[in-house]
Specification:
The chain has 230 residues and is α+β, with helices and mostly antiparallel strands. 30% of the residues lie in helices and 13% in strands. It is globular, with a radius of gyration of 16 Å. 40% of the residues are buried.
């Protein structure tokens, strides 16, 4: 594990729900472990709530396999192990990752270093980029990513999820990153008493309508290669 300060990769700016990164990436408390392991093995309210928000999958359960990071090298295979590695390469403090082999979903537990909501959104945007470009764009057949967050400030989101179909639409140019981030925001699980009263979302974004703008082709701020390309 490493802290984000160890990474040289920049973080995409998605503060206030407005992603501002480029497309085309090429490159704890003592009770936490037992609670995470129980969640990974049987599913609990937080991920069940996420599944309900996504309205796509039942409560998480089945066979959970804990995975370890693996360097993708020059010939990546888009495996969960490589996803773990790429998260750490981009400065995300990974606590544990599990692969639900029954439903082909990933469960990510990570420690946030965000000091406020904007920085938390930055982390989420970065994780989405790694998921999109390190897994889905390389042909992985993972269905969903579910997360649980070790928060760093009061009221921070405790969990959120991604449907791989959102990333596929993003890659195909049928939705932009803002639309995807707004979809992710819809899955946010907050601590009791800290749920936001309402979130402003641009009309049409949630329906994942095609973007009017051409996809950007500049180099991204995240890296999904084990080393930066020359």
């Amino acid at each position: 594990m490493r802290s984000r300060s160890d990474s040289t990769a920049d973080t995409p700016n998605v503060s206030n729900g407005r992603p501002d990164h480029d497309r085309g990436v090429v490159g704890t408390s003592t009770d936490r472990p037992s609670r995470r392991r129980a969640l990974a093995m049987a599913g609990t309210a937080s991920l069940a709530a996420l599944a309900g928000c996504l309205d796509l999958v039942p409560a998480v359960g089945g066979d959970q396999v804990e995975i370890e990071p693996e360097d993708p090298g020059d010939d990546p295979d888009a495996t969960p192990e490589e996803f773990y590695y790429l998260l750490e390469e981009n400065g995300i403090i990974v606590e544990e990752v599990y692969h639900n082999t029954d439903d082909n979903d990933l469960l990510l537990f990570y420690e946030s270093e965000a000091a406020d909501e904007a920085e938390s959104d930055d982390e989420i945007g970065l994780i989405y980029l790694v998921f999109r470009d390190g897994l889905i764009d390389r042909g992985a057949d993972i269905n969903h990513l579910y997360t649980e967050v070790t928060g760093n400030f009061e009221g921070q989101v405790e969990g959120w999820g991604i449907n791989s179909e959102w990333a596929e639409k993003d890659l195909a140019g049928d939705a932009d990153e803002l639309a995807v981030f707004n979809q992710i925001r819809e899955t946010f699980v907050y601590p009791e008493g800290h749920e936001p009263e309402g979130i402003e979302i641009d009309d049409g974004e949630i329906e994942m309508e095609p973007s009017d703008e051409e996809p950007q082709t500049n180099e991204s701020t995240a890296t999904t290669n084990s080393t930066d390309e020359e």
